[in-house]
Amino acid sequence: MQRARDLIPLLRSHAREADRERHIPEAVIEALDEAGMWQLTVPRRFNGHETDITTFVRAVIELGRGCGSSAWVTMISNAVSWFVGMLPGDAQKEVFGAKPNVRLCSVKTQTPDARRVDDGVIVSGRWTFASNSLNAEWALIGVPVLAPDGSWVEAGQGLVPMSDITIEDTWDVTGMRGTGSNTLVADEIFIPDHRVLPLDSAGEGGVPTEYSDEALYQSAYVPVLALIPAAPLLGLATTALELSIEKLPKRPVVYTGYKSSADSPTVQLAVAEASAKIDMAYLCMWHAAEEIDAVAKADETMPLLDRARIRRDVAFITRSCQEAVEILLDANGASCFAHSNPLQRIWRDIETGSRHGMLVPGVNMEVYGRALLGADLDLWTT
Q: Do both 117 and 228 map to the same domain?
């Protein structure tokens, strides 16, 4: 944790540049590398850290306190490394064998343009919103799992080297601008079977790695994918609170008699309420992450209702971060929307990041509500 925490000043100093230039500065990439942040979920067999999920999200939260985009790309790269740890050993050697600090990007979008060949699949297509595309050496893309006759079996994800991929510069958005979540384009690329994971199998816990004693890669698939994108948001919200506590006592409340915002009951209540929301978000984060780890280490399958409850927890974390920052923006006033003020960037990053498909609060709450009421759920909701 300390190595991630030590990066906060550097990340903050480059956060505006990442936002403006729409990519992570090289100085930050190198610092993340030197601190071992690209190896959080790489197996120890390849000199990685092989952290548990709790440690993973703790590190990403710390990075999020410095820069939302830097935390996001670190989270994405390690999410893919975690995915690689589920694949057969041959695939793991290809990715980690020569370079355990490899950087990866990911996009779940499925391509319909695929055909079955001996020992693999040939795909062409476009995959949008590939976070970390500008820094990655490998990409995880959505590909179908096909039967020998070429018929569709289920959705899958396959690993391809970035040398097989063209990047289209399409990521010009309001928040999380530094993530480089561009479009990947491929034309007739071959992906061998050992680099493809059927997603239903992953959801059921049937991953093909030969190293079944490595608990990290047995962690509940969808709960992990839902929880980890919330970590950068929690780091961002924490910084918004820290900045507000630092700055508000030095500012008057305009059109009132308060020369310091610290004397205003309205501002006092706002800071207290925002801090409560953030603290509750942390409690939900630790509870969910520790539960995922405990089940994986016990070599058990997480019950459906518990998996759905983690989706609910993610909804609460996401909404709490959004609401806390909104409250703090109100307390800080219009001046926090100056480009030079990091609060406006934090707000933009949270509002953009929280729209990730795994974070949308209404969808996640619906999943748990359906589970509580006994309605049907498929693997990809839990």
A: no
What is the DSSP annotation of 326-350? HHHHHHH-GGGGSTT-HHHHHHHHH
Q: Is the predicted pLDDT of residue 345 greater than 70, yes or no?
A: yes
Instruction: Give me the CATH number covering residue 163.
Output: 2.40.110.10
Residue 207 is assigned to a structural domain of this protein = no
In a domain, 46, yes or no: yes
- Looking at the fold, whether 162 and 265 belong to one and the same domain comes out as no
Give pLDDT, residue 381. 64
- Tell me the average pLDDT across 146-158: 88
Do the beta carbons of residue 124 and residue 186 sit within 8 Å? Answer: yes
**140, 105 in Cβ contact below 8 A?**
yes
**CATH code of the domain containing 293:** 1.20.140.10
293 with 238, same domain: the answer is: yes
- What is the model's pTM? 0.96
Contact in structure between 210 and 39 (CB atoms under 8 Å):
no
Residue span of the structural domain in which 324 resides: 221-381
Helix (H, G, I), strand (E, B) or coil at 180: coil
* Residue 156 covered by a domain: yes
Q: Which residues contact 181 (CB under 8 A, 6 or more apart)?
A: 129, 130, 131, 132, 133, 171, 173
Q: How far apart are CA 319 and CA 33, in angstroms?
A: 32
Q: Which helix (H) or strand (E) holds 124?
A: strand 120-130
The span from the CA of 64 to the CA of 61, in Å, is: 5
Which string of DSSP letters, residue by residue, matches 205-229?
T----S-TT-GGGGS-HHHHHHHTT
**Residues 80 and 229 occupy one common structural domain:** no
Question: In total, how many domains does the chain have?
Answer: 3
Same domain, 88 and 120: no
Cα distances (Å, whole numbers) of residue 130 to 39, 77, 170: 19, 11, 10
CA–CA distances in Å: residue 205 to residues 194, 221, 254, 293: 17, 7, 57, 14
**How confident is the model at residue 238, as a pLDDT?**
99
pLDDT of 162? 98
* Residue 206 in domain: no
Task: Spell out the residues 6+ positions from residue 28 whose beta carbon is closer than 8 angstroms to its own.
Answer: 10, 11, 14, 18, 67, 70
In this structure, the strands spanning 138-146 and 104-110 are parallel
